[in-house]
Amino acid sequence: MHFGRKLLITGKGRCNITSSIPIDEFINSIPGNGRFLYSSFQNYTNLDIISFLKQQNVEVKEERGNRIFPISDKSVDVLNAFIKKLKSENVKVITNSKVKEILCIDNEEKKKVIGVLLENGQKKLADKVIIATGGKSYPDTGSTGDGYEMIKKVGHTIQKLKPSLVPLVANEQSLKICKEMQGLSLKNVGIFLKDEENNKNIYEDFGEMLFTHFGVSGPTILSSSAHLLRYKDIEQKIKKNKIILEIDLKPGLSIEKLDNRVQRDFEKYKNREIRNSLQDLLPQKLILPVLKLSKINEDKKINSITKEERNNLVKTLKSFKIRIKDFRPIEEAIVTAGGASIKEINPKTMESKLVDGLYFAGEIIDVDGYTGGFNLQIAYSTGYTAGQ
Question: Model's pTM, two decimal places?
């Protein structure tokens, strides 16, 4: 097993290193226990990681959404910067040596760490152990979730593991529509996740999304999943078919302005069937699904479309509905929500409150952020704090 495999796949292989927003604002982008990270973020900021990489001759650039990437667009350059630093500090790295458990002794009121036991029976003795085993997402990279069992054995509480930053699965009825549009990416749309039962808005966003063979994905959908998984009684709501994704296909236009725009297109193509008249307004793949949801016969001529049908079309364009049935599996999530309870970790040092000498860093802790470099910054900041 080569280390850094998960880093290599971040940002679709380009490595979204961090975000350029002020470090004080990072907590707003960490829906999972963001306040716990305040000290860590102050200890090691986004400017610190950028400075470190520049010292290793890795130049960075900023892209839309405040995202920082290496200029080369290659995550391997970021990994090599870390490897270079490890070598310069003469750090010994042992690979293909799976840790089985954390070794502790009883020390007055609480335990004290004395090292780790490897799967081959070998013991590695140490006064301090940092657990940075990651979550349960992308198990092929080594994040198999075995760290949770190790810390559980020494007395730590594990908050329920859930997929975060994960695509959403459409219900049977909506799935047919999603499959028709599979591969279609929409930019500059508004999305609204709603609890139909209580008529509540769970989350809203603006940006990019994607239709897939199972439902919906893309940046706005992934971020929405981080809120959806924390919504009260979400499992029951999903079972009852009460979670709806509403997509505003034309967020820049009010209903009145959109209606005027539709009427202009209708006038322009008045002798055509409606399915051949919306190409100025919508991508081709989206036309038939929109007509289906608007309950308009696709072969109907524009000059015979009623006002009621036109109103239905405008409503659908402003509120294209997909019913959500589930999250995709945790193995497909960008990040794992849940993990080591923050109540049992000192936020200023990342040391266990239960076991002297045991420290935590990264995704194993019950913290998780949005896409955009926030989860990698959590890793750097908690790792730096634990290592002090």
Answer: 0.88
